[in-house]
Specification:
286 residues; alpha/beta; Rossmann fold; 9-stranded mixed β-sheet; two-stranded antiparallel ribbon; globular
């Protein structure tokens, strides 16, 4: 299928109550060839064996083990449910012990790059957290890739309004990681959080960085006191020179499948051999 990614940051950031950003609208059109193939088999472990529950449109949930912390994973533009689910599971596997994770929320990507349709039911996530889960959690970790940052910003506004529990209690244990995206919450919301981070990746062999690096740097500087920017080392990514959309997916996997472009299906779901899920930024969770 043909995909167009447009992160119209200035207008959309303003819509979420954030200061405007520099004009950094990136539009890329190409064929996501991986979407034409079936998703491969899952791992054989307790994470995979636990069934997903659908909480609402675009929102899946499962509880694994006895950890109290929650991880909420927002896929980028057009990411299907199963893509976000597989990525979320892999993050959970890698960090479950270190972060005391027990709750996994996987959120599909928006059907429009700027999330104009507001079709994802973040309200169901807020209500689910409010039913004792946020209060019991050691921490709440939000990870949002690309256009998924606009979707996660909607949840933050709900948390600020107390819909996930008293904001004074929930936001203070919540960290958010914007992975090469754009949308974010208001300054007031971010100031109450445990941390707000803006993550990009660079491959030193290429001398190039992921597609929305300038936005991540700008937002990181703007909100430095709340967490700021994180630069990841994507050296050895296998991306070609000029393949900035390939580097865009090095926030997900150490070795993207298409050296020139994003490949949502494979990069979100296939973690084997030299392809490892990227978790280094999560070391910043308090």
């Amino acid at each position: 299928m043909m995909l167009t990614r447009s992160l119209a940051l200035a207008g959309l950031l303003g819509a979420f109550g954030c200061a405007g950003s520099p004009d950094d609208t990136d539009t890329e059109t190409g064929t996501d060839e991986g979407a034409l193939e079936a998703v491969g088999a899952d791992r054989d472990d307790d994470v995979a064996h636990t069934a997903w529950t659908t909480l609402g449109t675009g929102v899946s949930y499962k509880s694994v083990g006895d950890g109290t912390s929650a991880i909420l994973v927002y896929g980028g533009y057009s990411a299907q449910d199963i893509y976000s689910q597989r990525w979320a599971q892999e993050l959970f596997r890698e960090k479950r012990e270190a972060l005391s994770l027990g709750h996994i929320y996987a959120i599909r990507g928006p059907n429009q790059s700027g999330y104009a349709n507001r079709e994802i039911q973040n309200s169901r996530i807020a209500a689910h957290l409010a039913a004792g889960r946020a209060a019991a959690a050691r921490s709440i970790v939000i990870v949002a890739h690309s256009s998924g940052t606009f979707v996660s910003a909607e949840l933050l506004s709900m948390m600020q309004a107390g819909r996930a529990g008293p904001a004074s209690e929930t936001l203070g244990k919540t960290s958010i990681f914007h992975l090469d995206g754009g949308g974010t919450g208001s300054r007031q919301t971010l100031s109450q959080m445990a941390g707000a981070f803006f993550v990009y990746a660079c491959d030193s062999n290429l001398g190039q960085c992921s597609k929305n690096t300038s936005s991540m740097k700008w937002l990181g500087q703007t909100y430095a006191s709340f967490g700021g920017a994180i630069k990841l080392d994507a050296t050895g990514s296998g991306c070609n020179s000029g393949g900035l959309w390939c580097l865009h997916d090095t926030l997900i996997t150490t070795k993207p499948h298409n050296p020139n472009m994003y490949d949502l299906r494979r990069d979100y779901t296939h973690f084997e051999g030299s392809r490892k899920v990227v978790t280094a930024y999560l070391d910043r969770v308090p």
